[in-house]
Amino acid sequence: MNIVCVYGSPIPTGNSATIANAFLETARESGANIKTFELYTLKFSGCKACMACKTGKEACIIDDDLTRVLAAITKTDVLVLAAPIYGADVNAAMKAFVERTHSFLGPGYGPLPGDSRLAPGKKMVLVIAQGGTEDMQEDVYPKYKKFFGCYGFTESFLIRACDLLISGDIRKKPEILQQARNLAREICRMPMPVDHGE
Hints:
By secondary structure, the protein is an alpha/beta fold. It has a single domain, classed as Rossmann fold, CATH 3.40.50.360. The protein has helices spanning 15-29, 66-74, 92-100, 140-149, 174-188, and strands at 2-7, 33-38, 78-86, 89-90, 122-129, 153-161. Strands 1, 2, 3, 4, 5 and 6 form a 6-stranded mixed beta sheet that branches. The radius of gyration is 16 Å and the shape is globular. The relative contact order is 0.20.
């Protein structure tokens, strides 16, 4: 099993990264191959709406550090997105990354079978760390679940930690870290598609 993790936090040891690392450590122990990318160490832009990926090109034509991240996702079975909530949504770096995944859709670029350039059957895990309470930003996960569903991510999972005011607060919520470990074991037992889009 191949897993790609994209970290959105500017803090490498932040709450969302710590949760994602608990997931990845357990997945690695279960035999998964792991690739990780920290967005704040990369130089890249958001989508420029040039539409080149819909008018003859099979991939995003912007040549920057995100190019290799997008390429890795085409070959992965599981995509882990780990981000803090800033301003009622995932933070800006993660949002810019998500914009660039628009290149995964072909000329039809709609939620129809065959529109995605990715092999079907991939799984997505969204890790969210937020300062707000559970009744805040409840719309974030459903939005990204539907968005990545258009790419063929047939199953999506959420690990969400609330009331985290400063970096390191996740250590006060061992149940969330255990949830991440349990989910990693569960996903590693699931059957995965053979075709990685190669």
